[in-house]
Amino acid sequence: MDAQAYFLATAAQPLERRPLSLPEPGPGEVLVAVEACGLCHTDLAFADGSVRPRHPLPLVLGHEIAGRVVAAGEACRHLAGRPVLVPAVLPCGDCPFCAAGRGNACPGQRMPGNDIHGGFASHVLVPGGPLIPLDQAPPGVRLDALAVVADAVATAYQAVRRSGLAAGDAAWVIGAGGVGGFLIQIAAALGARVVACDVAPERLAAAGRLGAEETVCVADRPPREVRKLLHQLARGWRIPSLNWRIFEASGSTAGQLLAFGLLGPAATLVQVGYAAGKVEVRLSNLMAFDATVHGTWGAPPEVFPEVLQLIYDRRIELEPAVDHAPMSALNRLLDDMANHRLSRRMILHPDA
Ligand SMILES: [Zn+2]
Ligand SMILES: [Zn+2]
């Protein structure tokens, strides 16, 4: 098998294209020929050295993989030849977390491009158990675009699902790019009234097209003022704070502070984004408000059929949120991402 991959050999250095040696799949493993792999901010954090992957370097990055199974181990024969999605979080499938439907928190989980070689490659070797077959996709839904479901879309869906959001609720989405954009689409598709908050006017314009009913530019606006504005909106809509679902997806400490400051009685805040810095908040507000704050990480395999159905039914549109490029453009795209020049999720295709 002539396989190639883009390796991170040294942090803060360009990825290097090298031959990839592939062992035969073990009984529970499959070899996937990569058709597409999405580019995530986590890849940039690994590439620029701000976060260290769990697997020692050199490592192939990329954890939003769609492809076709070209070799399957004994226990995965049913996947042979089929198009599949490789979830970003691959749980062990055999522990109390997995049994409880919390596989995304499984301590034995593996993540491509972090624990094992990832999808910026012609091929990837992964455990077969958590893979999601894609052969139900209707004509007109591009298989390669489904790559972003592995992380960006499924993470957003799981965040919404775990928040308990119902039709008629208010969803405040802090950070409208990337996962935030999908949060907006999903919350709106499920019948919530969505307000997007961001510092970038172009992301807010996009948020309007994705289903946000109101957009609020929070650049140079004190959090107190934003809070007042949103609370006024909720009053106008007659939605009590009991039915507020606040999603923090900005990846900034300013966004986190804003999100916490929006809490009201019995409101729910879900922490979706990652920022390395710390914030200082009065945790006792949770007591006073009887409020709920929780995190969310990836998505368990059980939710993928639900989220795919929303896409197959055209209730979530991927194409307006993604862009396609050849994998050989990886280093340039990482640079574009670092310099905030990307407004859509990039989907990379192996070339040559
Ligand atoms: Zn990611
Ligand atoms: Zn497990």
Please describe what this structure looks like.
Helix 3 (152-163) crosses helix 4 and helix 4 runs parallel beside helix 5 (201-210). The longest helix has 15 residues, at 223-237. The chain has 2 domains: 3-151 and 299-349, Alpha-Beta Complex (Quinone Oxidoreductase, Chain A, domain 1), CATH 3.90.180.10; 153-295, 3-Layer(aba) Sandwich (Rossmann fold). It has helices spanning 41-47, 96-99, 152-163, 179-189, 201-210, 223-237, 253-261, 284-289, 304-312, 330-338, and strands at 3-8, 16-20, 29-38, 59-60, 64-72, 83-86, 123-127, 132-133, 170-174, 193-198, 214-217, 244-248, 268-271, 292-295, 322-326, 345-349. The chain has 352 residues and is an alpha/beta fold. A hairpin with a 7-residue loop joins strand 1 (3-8) and strand 2 (16-20). Strands 3, 5, 6, 7, 8, 15 and 16 form a 7-stranded mixed β-sheet that branches. A 6-stranded parallel β-sheet has the order 11-10-9-12-13-14, sandwiched between helices. It binds zinc ion (2 copies). One zinc ion is lined by residues 40, 42, 63, 88, 151.
Summarize the structure.
The protein has 352 residues and is of the alpha/beta class. The protein has helices at 41-47, 96-99, 152-163, 179-189, 201-210, 223-237, 253-261, 284-289, 304-312, 330-338; strands at 3-8, 16-20, 29-38, 59-60, 64-72, 83-86, 123-127, 132-133, 170-174, 193-198, 214-217, 244-248, 268-271, 292-295, 322-326, 345-349.
